[in-house]
Design goal:
Blueprint lengths: L1 E3 L4 E3 L9 E5 L11 E6 L4 H17 L6 H16 L6 E2 L12 E3 L4 H22 L1 E3 L6 E3 L3 E3 L6 E3 H14 L18 H7 L2 H17 L4 E3 L6 E3 L8 E3 L6 E3 L14 H9 L8 H27 E3 L6 E3 L6 E3 L5 E3 L5 E2 L7 H5 L1
Parallel strand pairs: 1-5, 4-6
Antiparallel strand pairs: 1-2, 3-4, 7-8, 9-10, 11-12, 13-14, 15-16, 17-18, 18-19
Length: 363
Amino acid sequence: LLLSGQRWVSTLEISYLAPLSLQISLPPTYPSTDSPVFTLSSSWLSPVHLTALCQNLDTLWKENDHMVIIFTWIDWLENNVLSFLGLEDSVIIKPFNNDDVDDPRAFPESVDLGHNIISMLQYNRQQIEVEFCRNDQDCGVCFDRLPGNHFYRIGNCGHHYCRDCMLEYCQLHVSAGTVESLKCPDAECNDIIPPYIVQSVLPPMAYDRWERLVLQKSLTHMEDIVWCPRCSEPVIKEAEDSLNLAHCVLCFYSFCTECDEVWHQVLIITAEDKLKNLEQKPGKVNNEAEQRRFEEMREKIRAEIESARLLKLKMRNCPKCKAKIEKIAGCNKMTCRCGQSFCWSCGQTLAAGSLGYSHFTNS
């Protein structure tokens, strides 16, 4: 299929052309005297081509000496159109207008070139899908041979997998929280599995989790988004970076984006600073109740310091999104929910997938 216009020329490969539309009405004098009254339309033939076809249908009527002609017309259109018009290898589509139509029986379906191209591509894809479902296919994961309608086809790459394998594959990534890796299972393909396939294969609860994870990971990649330390909802940071300020509209908490404490106008207050300020606070404790509150506050701050120390030993910040990550078991290759991999020991960022393990081989 060649597309030709005033400003651009492009080539598209199409396996299935949309059918011609032949509309017929039979006059009372058919077939003894008059031929059927007809119109012929197409989304990919020019007015000149349609006019030539109409004239040839007239010729067939005359050659058959006023016999029943409808089935002869249909058979000829089904088997001889491309060869008759000399379009065996390619069809050239060019812009035209209604003035180009010489025969009133010839009806181009649209004068909009873009609309014609889109409708042809849609029909071609539909027919490819129909043909796929008619035949048995081999699953690219389990290698079982099943009818085509038991498979999911990934639109762009065309790889296909049976329903059971696709269900297990999607559930695996959704359960692990690695929805950014929910791509075509083929090792050399990076096409994303379309949302309509994910929705079709997953149970409702799993699909809801997939939606939440996709939203979270999308927000994590946005530099102006942080997470509220109180209600864990996404919050847009203030445009002025030096303020380190974010205000949660859900729980109305204004906090520092550096330390997650109540906003303190740039100055970062650590737990050690709080303890020092408390112990150096002037004045004496006047009664037992005040003494008890003082001791409780001091123990609380000390527990906060100890907790921070333990967290520092057990947790690391993702080098990309700064989210806190705890290592429970396994090797030192860590992968954050944002997709970034890094070394637990030295903090170096690593390549995704199996390539990241070369860091440990070379160390």
